Amino acid sequence: MIRLFVMDVDGTLTDGGVSFDVSGTEAKRYHIQDGMGIKLLQARGVRVAFLSGRHSDSTSARARDLGVDLCVQGVSSKLPVLVSWAEEMGISSRQVAYMGDDLPDLECLRWCGFGVVPCDGRPEALREADYVTPSRAGFGAVRDACDRIILMNLREGEGRHQGL
């Protein structure tokens, strides 16, 4: 059963584009259905976390908006952070889902129990995926992942209750 869903932000939760206005203020676009997927997971007891290689005030704001209390940004090596979160929660790698799209995500995709990559992720990441979303990054890919995790958890829970 998945108990922690960790995702990269740029190229998964967003389409990877970053806009800057004339004063240098950064803006990103987030898909509302992705946010709903995150809220549905949280309502089912799955902890959600953002783990990004670059820092962005927009990511911090989106985390606050969605009640995502685990949000680490600006890390070059993501796996140690992911492993420490799992250890703090007392869960195994099999209980962790990770969503990423590019080279910095490969170690996490290999380590976790359920690796997710948006359909427009880099080929190297796609090769490591347990699940490739039908939707593109920033256009419902996170919702696809959340829906799949919910379904997996329901099936696993039903199997245990039925003695399967």
UniProtKB/TrEMBL annotation:
One of its GO terms (molecular function) is N-acylneuraminate cytidylyltransferase activity. Signal peptide: none annotated. It comes from the Bacteria. Mg(2+) binds at residues 8, 101. Substrate binds at residue 10. Gene3D superfamilies: HAD superfamily/HAD-like. Transmembrane segments: none annotated. Its cofactor is Mg(2+). SUPFAM superfamilies: HAD-like. Keywords: Hydrolase, Magnesium, Metal-binding. Pfam families: Hydrolase_3. PANTHER family: HAD SUPERFAMILY MEMBERS CMAS AND KDSC, N-ACYLNEURAMINATE CYTIDYLYLTRANSFERASE. Homotetramer. Belongs to the KdsC family. This is 3-deoxy-D-manno-octulosonate 8-phosphate phosphatase, YrbI family. It comes from Thermanaerovibrio velox DSM 12556.
